Amino acid sequence: MEFSSKLLENAVYEMSQLPGIGKRTALRLVLHLLKQPEDRTTKLARALDAVRKDIKFCSQCHNISDAEICEICASPKRDRSLICVVEDIRDVMAIENTSQYKGLYHVLGGKISPMEGIGPHDLNIASLIKKARQGETKEFIFALSSTMEGDTTNFYIFKQLDGLDVNISTIARGIAVNDELEYADEVTLGRSILNRVPFERSLKAN
Amino acid sequence: MEFSSKLLENAVYEMSQLPGIGKRTALRLVLHLLKQPEDRTTKLARALDAVRKDIKFCSQCHNISDAEICEICASPKRDRSLICVVEDIRDVMAIENTSQYKGLYHVLGGKISPMEGIGPHDLNIASLIKKARQGETKEFIFALSSTMEGDTTNFYIFKQLDGLDVNISTIARGIAVNDELEYADEVTLGRSILNRVPFERSLKAN
Predict the structure, then answer these.
(1) Which has the higher per-residue pLDDT, A145 or B205?
(2) Which CATH number do you get for residue A43?
(3) ipTM of this predicted structure
């Protein structure tokens, strides 16, 4: 693409560095900003700058937070004996939206992935082990995605927790509520049958 | 969506104001920036700020430019008797990419669209008429999109140029090169036949 302006070219280049945004989309976005009032762009630029510079991570669960300790970790209503281990903040938001969980979280910040050069030491695993050793936690719930990387990470942490007096569970995998059995994949359906729950318990969940 | 941080919420909100970017995508983009080195975000914010504040429009053709007069208008190699009328800067870039056009441009900045509240006075039409009156231009080539708004705009300008000694043409509409006739829509195919060109001329174009 040949640009008639260096400023434009630079803005389009920086915008196209974002994931899933190509040069054409970036140009469309920048031209949109040029048509909007100037403070639209100023606000966007300031908000991005602020979030990058001033963002804090909760010292206990590593969730994104404005304070030293996030609202969830600081809440007296939360069950401190239960810790749900997740990949990133979006998973915390997804679980919080269900209103079904009253324990704490531990955000790993990713999964072990040799392909992307992410090892155990790039993740918040050491602090998880430390929490387990302190003895306040009764159960860790693994809620990572069920990919090879997720499974590897689960297994690595499981091994690290070996010998400590703490329960370890993973979230249930199975057919989604409202899904038809005939369209489900075999692995999920197989797990659904293996990990069946007593009928009375399924009544309670509704 | 419930955010654990006001800074994050604000950045996601500002990002989701861009066209085609929803809250989920915005969150994904902001979290991506948080994982990147800080200067990635700083550069993006600065580039957006700079393009919005310091962008200039060429005083002759209204194309985006870093200087008072854009490179195309300033070039002595360009045919000053020919002006191609386009909607926005993306059209200039598209035509420049063909390397088939050596005249100047005139960027309207949009199309007449009563639905969106855009009238002739919101577009760079007055300066176009002024150029036509100065008499240096021999031909205007209309290259607006062939929608109702584009046709309306073409017709409005055509009426305004009435009585002036200047040729007016529009770019050819027809079946795209390499397209199969059987899949073409009737209107385009019909125009293709009505506006057929002498065979020798089509040889020269290749």
Answers:
(1) A145
(2) 1.10.8.420
(3) 0.82
